[in-house]
Design a protein that fits this description.
The chain is about 35% helix and about 15% strand. It has about 450 residues and is an alpha/beta fold. It folds into 2 domains: about 10-215, Rossmann fold (3-Layer(aba) Sandwich); about 225-375, P-loop containing nucleotide triphosphate hydrolases (Rossmann fold), CATH 3.40.50. The strands form 2 sheets. It has an 8-stranded parallel β-sheet, sandwiched between helices. Strand 4, helix 5 (about 120-130) and strand 5 (about 130-135) form a beta-alpha-beta unit. Bound molecules: adenosine monophosphate.
Amino acid sequence: MFRRNTITTSFNTLGLSADLLRAVSEQGYTVPTPIQAQAIPVVLAGKDLLAAAQTGTGKTAGFTLPLLQLLHQRGNAKTIRCLILVPTRELAAQVQESVRTYGKYKPLRSITVFGGVNINPQIHDLRRGVDIVVATPGRLLDHVQQKTIDLRHVEILVLDEADRMLDMGFIHDIRRIIGLLPKQRQNLMFSATFPEEIRKLAATFMRHPVTVEVARRNTPAELVAQVQHQVDQSRKKDLLAHLVKSNDWRQVLVFTKTKRGANRLAEQLEKSGVEADAIHGNKSQPQRTRVLKRFKANELQVLVATDIAARGIDIDELPHVVNFDLPHVPEDYVHRIGRTGRAGSSGEAVSLVCHDDRPLMAAIEKLMNRRVEQRIIAGFEPGRSQPRQHQPAKHQPRHQPRPQRPHHAPQPLPGPVSRPTGTPAPAPRPKQASEHRHLRAQAGLLRE
Ligand code: AMP
């Protein structure tokens, strides 16, 4: 069944208990988001759910609220009855935060299980008994191997950001984990995109899932102003410091290619008087958590990150993303700029493009089927060896972005789907470019 709900529902009509409603209202939420309005009743009814929803749509509360209610209704067993699998440590921490926030009036216990931190406290917590485990696949399997986790009582399995888990190579781990769970259980799967592997995976373990799909969160192409600054490689750091200071930018997420590059850039920015730090895989989990916390609290102007480290950073209204190094894979550009413009806010994505970066930018423009406006900042023109100091930034648009063509409907979900009358069936999709297609669809850029 394909459900699309455009009518505004109230939280009170979804079947949630009073204590959950209280926790929700304490968050200041007045109306459920479309994914919440559709997912909550389905989960409460005990059905499997396959949901097309991206980060930023409110999907976490969409599954957390009803599962808290179901678990509580079924007692207070302190055995693992719900397993939530997520791709990254950061996302695990965020999801558990939601479990805690919404479940503050429920006596249910949750923990996170992820790598990069000492396993012993997790073993200790597991021994004490928990109801909900939010885990990344690798560390969960470490616990399975060490026999420190008991998954025999799992009633609800959630796969969150399933497409990202597959992108990160977790498919075999996920299959193994599913094989360890009781056959009789409820399955919820959330994914931003539905490439073939996701459809196949869903078909292997879900039972007659109800499929829901919400309009894509406002896509980067719609919301994020994109601009490229032409600049020599050696002047990129000065230009970045100049942009941050002269525009008084706050909460700037900057991408570099390498971990060393991230460290170096953060140090150079600090020297130029910009509060900056780096986050990447070589930092310990406590360090990463600390840096993220400072960034979220607006104590850091700039967070320099590598692509992997930046996954799972969800900050409302992150206003600026800077590509200090352009990604080698054009699709990563779409992921990166998707860090901004969340929750309906607008953002700006700035790319610093030196001569050698131009083919990369051309590939990105080709993927998106649109041009990214070029600007040259006075004093940082390519080929100039010295900056012209203390000049106000002058923007010289080289050419305007092409007007956008309308979007097509998102890809249909697997399973029985009925379309509203008059909606044309989606065109068959050529196979060869499928990988590119799902990313372009994600960016709202797919045109058929
Ligand atoms: P998510 O897609 O689950 O990562 O949620 C994105 C953001 O939306 C989070 O910061 C939530 O706190 C927020 N949010 C979730 N549900 C609502 C709601 N009903 N009203 C307003 N904000 C919400």
